[in-house]
Amino acid sequence: IALLGQNQASVFDLVLQVGQSTESVTVEAIGSGVQSMTTELGTVLTSQEMTDLPVGRSIQSIMDLSPGVNAVTTGQSSVPSVNGSINRASVYMMDGTSNTAPTYTSLAVNPIMETIAEYKVQSHNDSADVGGVTGGVINVATKSGTNELHGQAFEITQNTALNARNTFQAVRPTTHGITAGVVVGGPVWLPKIYNG
Q1: Which helix (H) or strand (E) holds 47?
Q2: What pLDDT digit, counting tens, does each position of 3-17 carry?
Q3: Tens digit of pLDDT for each residue in 79-103?
Q4: Which neighbouring-strand residues pair with 45?
Q5: How far is the C-alpha of 90 from the C-alpha of 45, rounded, in Å?
Q6: Going by C-beta distance under 8 Å and a sequence separation of 6 or more, which residues neighbour residue 125?
Q7: What is the DSSP letter of 161?
Q8: Which residues are 123's β-sheet partners?
Q9: How far apart are CA 155 and CA 160, in angstroms?
Q10: At CA 89, angle to CA 83 and CA 93, rounded to 5?
């Protein structure tokens, strides 16, 4: 045993013998790793997650579920702020094109929730395709078409009898609202031009 002082190094040459291999390791699944190619942060929601969540029927109400997003109420509406930026600094994209209203820098067309395939809120996005963004980039990908007829019906009911009472209020606030709709999709049929 040799005692070493500060900033001294010592080398020990050891000889190891090669042994028999008696175990093998098989990796069955690949975990999702950290995205190390860019500095952007993001939250992705699938179509099933969006329809299952008990939130409003607007993209902006779903944004509040993402980390770093805060609802900022301005007058009659609530426009979310992403990671401390001003609430009108975000860009909305739908299927790769701009969905940002030019006058108020907010959501131009609110897509129907059942038509959305994937939704992503990105921040710190320094990509050239969304240049000039100081807030978040909200990407919406809609579902693609199909050659089979399919549909979906939905009803969202808000009722005082179904709501919980706030701990600090004596009675439940009166709430009545029903949102119902049908979404139908299928092949495109243009007589004598296109069928399918």
Answers
A1: helix 47-52
A2: 555 555 677 788 888
A3: 788 888 887 888 888 988 888 888 7
A4: 119
A5: 18
A6: 38, 40, 133, 136, 137
A7: G
A8: 41
A9: 16
A10: 100
